[in-house]
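Forwarding these from the shared drive since the link keeps breaking.
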Amino acid sequence: MSPRRTLFYTHLSFLVALTLSIAPFSDELIIYNPQWLVLVAAYWGIFAPNQTGIITGWIWGLLLDVALGTHLGIHALSLSLVCYMTVILHQRLRMYPLWQQAFFIWLLASLDKIVVYQLVNIFSPQQALYDYWMSSITSAIFWPVTIILLNYLRQKARV
């Protein structure tokens, strides 16, 4: 498989995740929207750590910052931390059963939320309610679905 084709499918999945992250939902459902970029970054960091890394997380985090209109670098820092954690722990995470991987994804999604919350509080203090943390839980719930879909893409593309 050529490196260009591998990068194409990797970044295509990131583009779909970015689109799902900024897709408009109703106010009641927006709190349950999983952190799609965290899920995709974690998947590629665990199962193809040579194709993704901290720079990939930083670039897609910056694109999310631009798309959401937040201060530049907030999501970039949090997503690069997610990529760093998954790349350095990818050999262990591959051996874990799915429920332990989902627990780790919950921790990563919560870390992402904590970093974003703390950086946003620097510019405009706010209080995080329980609604703020719901997307971390739904991200852990959607982890098996993410693995199934991206494994299918990886097998079809021979990545």
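-- next protein --
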Amino acid sequence: MSAKRFCLDSHVLVSAFDFRDPAKQAVAEQLVRDAALCDCTVGLQSIGEFYAACIKPKSKFLSPANAAREAMLLLALFPTFPATANAHQIAAREAATGRFSFWDAVLLASAAEAGCVLLLSEDMADGARLGPITVRNPFDPSGLSAAAVAALAP
């Protein structure tokens, strides 16, 4: 396990299919492709959230069949990690303090258990920390953020 192990949030995965912002979509597509070649893992929770977000009537980026195909591809491309009972206990405590939503805290605690030190997410506060995990927004106006570039570096 690398000291730089990181994971991707569902919002990054969804952005790779969000045609409403073609520039961001292209950056997210490249990020996912490059991350698959690194010490990057994806939470099973994130893959489920990806599927659900892509088929929501409000967004409907993908048909259910295409979303299922893409979820299967993500499962094949990345090592995954589950959400454990311990992660749910940590999440309940964190959510009670108001620092994170329950599901964000589940993802962070689960990622920490999987050996991650970084979560690339635009959905949480940039720089937020839970245990050994730091949240970094992978996007900036010019494309990939410095944190995302550093995570992808060999």
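The two ends are 14 Å apart (CA to CA). The chain has a mean pLDDT of 93.

- D.
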